[in-house]
Amino acid sequence: MSEQKPLRVVGQPIERADAHAKVTGRARYTVDLAKPGMLHAKVLRSPHAHARVVSIDTTRADTMPGVRAVATGPKLAEWVAMPVYGYFIKDQPILAMDRVRYEGDMVAAVAADTEAQANDALAAIRVVYEELPALPGIDAALDEEAPELFPEPPRGVVPPYGEGASAKLWPRKNVCYAFRYTTGEADVFDGCDHVFEDEFRFSRMHHMHLEPFVCLAEWLEGDEIEVATSCQNPFPLRKEIARIFRVPENRISVKVPFVGGGFGAKNNCKTEPLALVLSKMTGRPVRFCMTMEEAFLTNTQHAAVLKLKTGVMADGTLVARQSHILLDSGAYSDASPLVAEKAGYRITGPYRYKHVDSVCECVLTTTTPSGPYRGFGGTQATWASESQIDMIARRLGIDPMEMRLKNLVALHEPWMPGESGVDSDMAEGLALVAEAIGYGAHKKAEPGWTRGHGLAIGFKDGGGVNKPAQARVKVSTGGDIHLMCGTVEIGQGARTALSQVVAEILGAPLKRVEYLPLDTRYTPFDQGTNASSAITVMGQAVQRAAVSVRDQVLQMAAEHLGTDVAALELEDWTIRHGNEAHPLAPIIMHVYGGTGFEFTGDGFHKQANDHHAPLETKSVFWEIGWAGVDLSVDRETGQVKIHALAVSGDAGRAIHRLICRGQDEGAALMGLGQAMFEQMIYDGSRLINGEALMYRVPLAEDLPEQFTSILQEQEHGPGPFGAKGMGEGTMLPVPPAIANAIQDAVGVRITDLPLTPERVLAAIIAAES
Amino acid sequence: MSLVSQDGNLKVSFTLNGRATTVQTTSTRVVSDLLRDDMNMKGTRVSCGRTVCGACSVLVDGFPRAACSTFTFELEGRDVQTIEGVEGSDGSLDPVQTAFARKSAFQCGFCTSGMILLAKSLLAAHPDPDRETIIAWISSNICRCTGYELIIEAVQDAAKAIKAEAGA
Ligand code: FES
Ligand code: FES
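A: This is the predicted complex of the input protein with FE2/S2 (inorganic) cluster.
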């Protein structure tokens, strides 16, 4: 196997496959596309958090210049078979039917010759609302007096779960989904020396991907659908479109060019169903491009309240944990059930427990729908869990690092009963970040400031649940390699890494591999670009496809040369046989005739179903992020200055080191933003900082004085050449590591994010009085 | 000053990527729309549309401007450079582009046109910038993907390459 040979492409310092396109500005994104006769869509959004739509009058808008179609919820029935969408629960209407459920909910849409004309027409639409009580957050939605956001709960599904896991739809008022995971016996609490109960709050961020939500959709003659979109999961999107419009999937083409960032937001329907409705109404291609302000009103991270009850022995041995997590799901379920599953499942982090009982509920509120966000529930879980571990260690007088080391699940040990073994030595990673910040040896702080160190480990199952992936590799007579697979290049470097795997196996330089444009009509099936699954799930499918081609080529050559396959090697489309070199093209023409041939190999991968595993499949791999922080706190102002932030991820094997580094650093800085300042601020149900000026994201000047990322390659991964997925892990531990360092510095514990100077100062004052 | 033509449109003349250019446009047309929609130059990206993210940066007389928030008439008589004008006429990459490519100083690439132009302007003003100077300049643009470190390193590499070229 080539895996044993020295690697020539994998792990080598080569340029990304998309480098030239991106540094010259030639890369094409959905936002750049146009078609002749294209119309522009714009939507009218609800100014109320919660209201009944009494009437919509579009008569003036209908006849305004350039206007080709005006759509409203009640009118949709003419054009759409099923006007709602959602992951587990189909509850989100393409346009509001009889009710709006958040400020920004889509009420009406216009397709016009220009965006300006569409906007003018929107201003001429008259909507009469009858306001209903707003439910601006978890507490309000769960209040006894609160009205039901969905008086008739929409239908949904609960997927099959394995041992210990279960879920319920609509278990109580305004809760659309509740996930539970339990293992071991609760009575072990009785034997604990201490039981600690703490509550944590998690604030909510927006993805702020720079390329907007945008699509270019066309309803063609004969009910064929073509939609190019900035999307992370084209195949599930195709399925939703097929269901919504009752069109066979083989008449739908979803194409995805380069995507300008997503971080989770670009899963499932965003702009596409509405653009298709308008295209169907007008017979013209329709471009629907949201502004950044609209993106803030479309999808967000989940705010959360997390209650933990943890039983522990006096020596720091963890015994049992019960948790109750409430996620603010916003107005529609979106991916909330899936996020709940992950937050609930991941709440114990990387440690060993005898008993776990974890419940996570999705609470509907009158705010922007929350959905997938880098870390996917793991961020919320890690914030609470890694904070509490530190608090417990300090209460017991144990060094927080010692406490972690004592309880970490060991390399290869199953994380939970029925689960796969952990595929990183977590103590090793912790030692690396601790050393990088000089853990325990505090340097001197400036006068008035005190210095502190904090550590944390982010831990999540990686690779997704139930993700089948297929890939196809084709090589033409001349040795030009075509790679076809459904992983979206969203910036993570998937085109490069997957092409490298193919190049390595076929003994070709990277430049020989072309990653073909993604079109659901021709690209083999994939579940979606998420859960850090590209290299471990799709990577295995791609590897198999490439190995299949290589074997076919070697077999043909062996027969032609009258020798044994084992004696041959493939190198840059030449067969090496001892000291002889046989270029392949002449051999292929000889064997298959003058027109040549194309070798095709297919690959498939899916983690096997396993009912003993709580989520029905064992975790493909474990994504772990370690963080260490050295900071100072100004006791006078509550200001926090981060001197050093060290993060580390384990790539298993880095297919491309700089890409891995960039993923780890980008994730860590997102975590830093989450920790220090970044959040969506609501006044009641009204988002008051939903645009770029007011919503603060990390800039270069927010980098800590020293920012280190340490790339580990522990080589235990399931992906090609021992690779593991990455890109989410190092975001998770940053907020708790900073909170832990703040406690180390000034002895106060902040349990709410972000860790603003106001909060820190208030905690210092409270502790002093 | 730009001239108002008979049909009420503005006629604006400027240098675009080294070439004398005259456009007929309206008084409210912003540069990003002019470039992207009227001239089919899609390398200038638009994200926030309000002078915050810098994705749309172009160089006007050598300094970065937010194309999304600059009116076309403001270009009258100016020298404008977009990402399309950064590579050599023979298609060779500029040292800043090469450094970004080698360092993987991008991920999704949506900020990259703006970052590269920003870096070019920075290096013209400070051929030998220290880390603080790079951070101060780069902080005017948002990159949501990279965490900035690789961008900073690419700018450092580009500075070295330009110096080496000049010395050779
Ligand atoms: S798009 Fe112009 S500054 Fe953001
Ligand atoms: S590379 Fe995606 S925003 Fe910078």
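Chain B has five helices and six strands. The beta strands of chain B are 3-4, 10-16, 19-25, 57-60, 63-66, 79-81.
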